[in-house]
Amino acid sequence: MVRRADDPPSRILYRVIELQRLTKRYGDTLAVDELSFTVQPGHVTGFLGPNGAGKSTTMRLILGLDAPTSGQALVNGRRYTSISRPMREVGALLDASAVHGGRTAYNHLLCLARTNGIGPMRVAEVLEQVGLAGVARKRVGGFSLGMKQRLGIASALLGDPGVLMFDEPVNGLDPDGVRWIRDLMRSLAAEGRTILLSSHLMSEMALTAERIVIVGRGKLIAEATVAELTARYPSLEDAYMALTANSVQYGAAR
Ligand SMILES: Nc1ncnc2c1ncn2[C@@H]1O[C@H](COP(=O)(O)OP(=O)(O)OP(=O)(O)O)[C@@H](O)[C@H]1O
């Protein structure tokens, strides 16, 4: 992006997630520990870390669903809670199962749209985009996990936001769905959006993301491009294993 001297600050910070010494403590647990990094537009940024590393907590803090103990998380230069029309600036899929099972997919999205000043045409558009148009009038309670993931993605896209976050969106998806997510993430990024994506599937992440942020025990471990990591290690998985070796809290039983 070319920065001109007369650009207003909001333009410069457009489509950026910025963490500044973000910290969250739950009792004795330091879930996020002085985390600072920036997520830029135009490519997918993978957010990696062992179980309990603080990825979901970080995303919740960015979305104002929880308050930081100290530090701050900014979207487009502002805290989420001070954005007047948040769905139009940032969309997220955190927990696909957190939907009212008695509602149809269409009604679920329509309620969200109405409370955010978004018209019904957009509901039809996102249902089409995620491949749920044919089941729009079916109750969400009967949806498979993969269909719920698609509905969660439709909710995130509803406000056509420039910043998107997805917490393990490929969970429960069949190979066709996994490829669909990969293509969707890449095309959203190619449109100039900022995409933060968490997943434990390293091979998939290597195909989807261009930049990687790795956290462990709430702290930043590494920030690099996939190309940099795979130049230093045999694969992204090897890089991840080596870099997080001292941060795994819940190792597999042997
Ligand atoms: N509401 C909460 N109350 C107490 N502790 C919490 C809460 N939310 C998260 N934690 C703790 O904070 C730490 C980070 O959890 P978080 O869910 O953010 O990790 P994660 O990286 O998303 O893990 P996973 O890969 O398993 O989803 C964990 O030790 C977790 O138990």
Q: What would you say about this model in short?
A:
The protein is an alpha/beta fold and 254 residues long. 33% of the residues lie in helices and 23% in strands. Residues 1-12 have low confidence and may be disordered.
According to CATH, what is the class of the largest domain? Alpha Beta
**Which shape, going by the Cα principal axes?**
globular
What is the CATH-assigned architecture of the largest domain? 3-Layer(aba) Sandwich
N-end to C-end Cα span:
50 Å
- Note poorly predicted spans: 1-12
Strand order of the largest sheet: 5-6-7-3-8-9
Keywords: ATP-binding, Nucleotide-binding, Transport
InterPro entries: AAA+_ATPase, ABC_transporter-like_ATP-bd, ABC_transporter-like_CS, P-loop_NTPase
Protein name: ABC transporter domain-containing protein
Family: Belongs to the ABC transporter superfamily.
Description:
Mean pLDDT is 91; it is low at 1-12. Helix 4 (120-129) crosses helix 5 (145-157). It is built from nine helices and nine strands. It folds into two domains: 1-89 and 164-249, Rossmann fold, CATH 3.40.50.300; 98-160, no CATH class. The protein has helices at residues 9-12, 55-62, 105-115, 120-129, 145-157, 175-190, 202-208, 226-232, 236-244; strands at residues 17-26, 29-39, 44-48, 70-75, 90-93, 163-167, 194-198, 211-216, 219-225. 40% of the residues are buried. It is α/β, with parallel strands linked by helices and 254 residues long. The protein is globular and about 50 Å long. Belongs to the ABC transporter superfamily. This is ABC transporter domain-containing protein.
